[in-house]
Amino acid sequence: MVKSADEVLISGIKEVDDFFEQEKTFLLDYFSKIKDSTAKAEKMTRSHKNIADDYIHISATLNAICAEDSTANKKSLEKLSDLFEKLRKVEGRVASDQELKLTELLRYYMRDIQAAKDLLYRRARALANYENSNKALDKARLKSRDIPQAEEHQQQCLQKFDRLSESAKKELTSFKGRRVMAFKKNLVEMAELEIKHAKNNMAMLQGCIEQLKGF
């Protein structure tokens, strides 16, 4: 897998804070897993939509057969056609719920994780600049030239790095809390909706079977 420029920098620089070292490792791995989960969620949603489309074709075919059937099977075929139309609606709702509660959430966190990685990149760049300013100051002292300018530049780089470290730590801590709450909320809601749809499907199937027995 080809790494982006920020991933190369983030992975290559020697970290000075354990918190950011752990976050760096976590985010690079987590982004890969979320990306994979998003692709699988999209595939799952498409499958439910395809099933709903199949139900449309089955219902339409049964309707067409009914139109040409004058036997005792006509009522059974009509009932089955109606059943598949109802199942189509439920399957469509399942697909919509999964899209809203899971797939969209994963897409959002792909973007949010990228923003967190960008934050780590900016901090890593600031750390690299600070380390370079230390080297430049050492050279200036060896040559006894431009020492005040080198010291001022070093202090500016250090201040920028400290500011970014402080803000990044707050943002990454907040990100963790938001992420846990969002996934818990959406996954619970999706599970409740899927239980509801499964019960509706079961009730419709049982009702249809009972009616078919009466024909």
TrEMBL record:
One of its GO terms (biological process) is retrograde transport, endosome to Golgi. GO terms for cellular component: cytosol; endosome. Transmembrane segments: none annotated. Residues 11-145 form the Sorting nexin/Vps5-like C-terminal domain. It comes from the Eukaryota. InterPro entries: AH/BAR_dom_sf, Vps5_C. GO terms for molecular function: dynactin binding; phosphatidylinositol binding. This is Sorting nexin 5. It comes from Nothobranchius pienaari.
